[in-house]
Amino acid sequence: MPRKRLTQLFPALIPLRQAQRRLFCLVGMRLDRRRYAGTQWGAVLPQRVFADSSPLLNPDTGFDLRYQWNKVHNIQLAVDKLDRLLIRPGETFSFCWAVRDADKVTPYKDGLIVVDGKLTTAPGGGLCHLTNLLFWLFLHSPLTIVERSGHREKDFPDPGDQPAGTDATFAAGWLDLKVRNDTGRTYQLLLEVANGTLSGSLQADRREAVEYQVRNRDLRYYRQGEAVYQEVDVLQQRLSRLTGELLGETTLYHNRCRIGYPLPAGVTLQEKG
Question: Contact at 8 Å (CB) between 156 and 261?
Fold first, then answer.
């Protein structure tokens, strides 16, 4: 039997451990010589690179709906620190860094999080809904992925027709979302929470000749023991904005996660030893 962590034996220590990890993470970023995006500029950059939106309320979690509204509250606090944030050439965007003081005045409320494969509640829960949208925006740009972690277990299917494996989770002090601007352009985040919906846009200071699409390759499901897993490659395509011609394709990463919901009819499930 695996040895239990101290916080598993004494859950009351979790907030202390979280604060410790968060402090170490922020100190490390102050010393790593990267320039982190931190300027919120009032004006809106003129060129839209990509935009999308996502409903924030999901009544199918099985939890009290107040935790969904708490998520909306938590995301609004983070959005206040991210809206109109510039990512200048040579700068790195870090979600952890950008929202480090989001709860300094108004505290986060208890929202849903996944701990050891189980849904539970904790202050700041639900922020991964925001990192999911941010990462989806970044995937449609030339920004370089520095750090991204997918959810190890998915309890709900991917939304709409969005490709599998394009989520990004967050845990302060443990998991971050980072992208670096290696281009000569300046980018800007526009974010808004309204009527239970999170909307986001990635803007640029000038028009790009290329647009980006994201797709899957080799999507497969398999059973290993009692668990069901999904594996997939995530690719980014570059297309001419003028002609639509495919200019290139890059495999960004391989994603694997455990599936915690019933698979739709017709999905082939392989057996794996």
Answer: yes
Environment class of residue 231 by beta-carbon count within 10 Å: exposed (0-12), middle (13-18) or buried (19+)?
A: middle
What is the average per-residue pLDDT within 72-77?
96
Q: Let me know if residue 172 belongs to a domain.
A: yes
Backbone angles phi, psi at 212, to 5 degrees: -120, 140
Structural domain count, the chain: 1
Q: Which of 64, 66, 72, 65 is nearest to 194 (CA)?
A: 72
Q: What is the mean pLDDT of residues 201-228?
A: 95
Residue 218 lies in a domain: no
Q: What are the tens digits of pLDDT across the range 21-54?
A: 777 888 888 888 899 999 999 999 999 999 999 9
**CA nearest to 143, candidates 10, 37, 246:** 37
Distance, in Å, from the CA atom of 24 to the CA atom of 60, rounded to the nearest integer, reads: 36
Whether residue 137 is contained in a domain is answered as: yes
Smallest Cα–Cα separation from 46: which of 160, 186, 182? 186
Domain extent, residue 55, equals 6-208
Contact assessment for residue 33 and residue 129, using Cβ atoms and an 8 Å cutoff: no
Residue 197 lies in a domain: yes
Q: Are 237 and 214 in contact (CB under 8 A)?
A: yes
Which of 131, 124, 123 minimizes the C-alpha distance to 147?
131
Please give the pLDDT value at position 12. Answer: 58
Per-residue pLDDT at 176: 95
Q: How confident is the model at residue 266 (pLDDT cuts 50, 70, 90)?
A: confident
Residue 178's closest CA among 25, 14, 57, 3? 25
